[in-house]
């Protein structure tokens, strides 16, 4: 049976030959499919330095070679390119109304999408007043995670009736997003959202982003075929 070797042209290093691996980097492995006689080079956890030309060499006489160019891209960069013409927007997960127990932690999650760069700042408001971290109320904190989509979490511990009302997330590069919080004391319908509202909704954000990506892909395909 002919032997197939994979060679990395960056340093002319023989990575695999047949079923043997000739590199200490355990991310590289070649597999053979007896049904199709295909040899596949696998690179686990690809990194930028893995980009370049790879040669698949078959031990025929003369030797036959096939060259492949590997491009390693950043997911955040792809995301930004896909939505480069979209308008930056902000929304608070779980709205327009959130119901929490008195004494629990209010956790509001604001997601800023489609912006060419993360917002320079994000202000949180209760009604029309900026929420201050050093207010006499205490128990106020904000956590912000920047990336392709920036997420800001507002946490208010030991919720009281006075914490009810409209909360707004105001990023520097997008329109204001608002939600109304109801702090309740007593029983209410099971359909109402209870407890800490925000972190439990992170999966909804992921689903929404995936749906937006699918919709965007369909629109691009429609434009190419029209």
From TrEMBL:
Residue stretches making up the Ig-like domain: 1-69, 88-180
Matching PROSITE patterns: IG_LIKE
Signal sequence range: none
Protein name: Ig-like domain-containing protein
Organism annotation: Iphiclides podalirius
């Amino acid at each position: 049976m002919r032997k197939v070797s994979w060679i990395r042209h960056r340093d002319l290093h023989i990575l695999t030959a047949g079923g043997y691996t000739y590199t200490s980097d355990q991310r590289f492995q070649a597999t053979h499919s007896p049904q199709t006689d295909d040899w596949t080079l696998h690179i686990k956890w690809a990194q930028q330095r893995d980009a370049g030309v790879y040669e698949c060499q078959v031990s025929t006489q003369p030797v036959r070679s096939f060259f492949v160019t590997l491009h390693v891209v950043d997911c955040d960069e792809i995301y930004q390119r896909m939505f480069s013409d979209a308008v930056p927007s902000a929304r608070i997960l779980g709205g327009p109304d959130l119901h929490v127990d008195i004494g629990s932690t209010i956790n509001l999650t604001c997601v800023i999408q489609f912006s060419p760069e993360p917002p320079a700042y994000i202000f949180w408001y209760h009604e029309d007043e900026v929420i201050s971290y050093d207010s006499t109320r205490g128990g106020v904190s904000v956590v912000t995670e920047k990336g392709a989509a920036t997420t800001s979490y507002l946490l208010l511990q030991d919720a009281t009736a006075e914490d009810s009302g409209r909360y707004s997330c105001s990023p520097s590069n997008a329109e204001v997003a608002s939600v109304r919080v109801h702090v309740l004391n007593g029983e209410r319908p099971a359909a109402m959202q209870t407890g800490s509202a925000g972190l439990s909704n992170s999966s909804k954000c992921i689903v929404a982003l995936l749906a937006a990506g699918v919709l965007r892909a369909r629109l691009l395909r429609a434009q190419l075929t029209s």
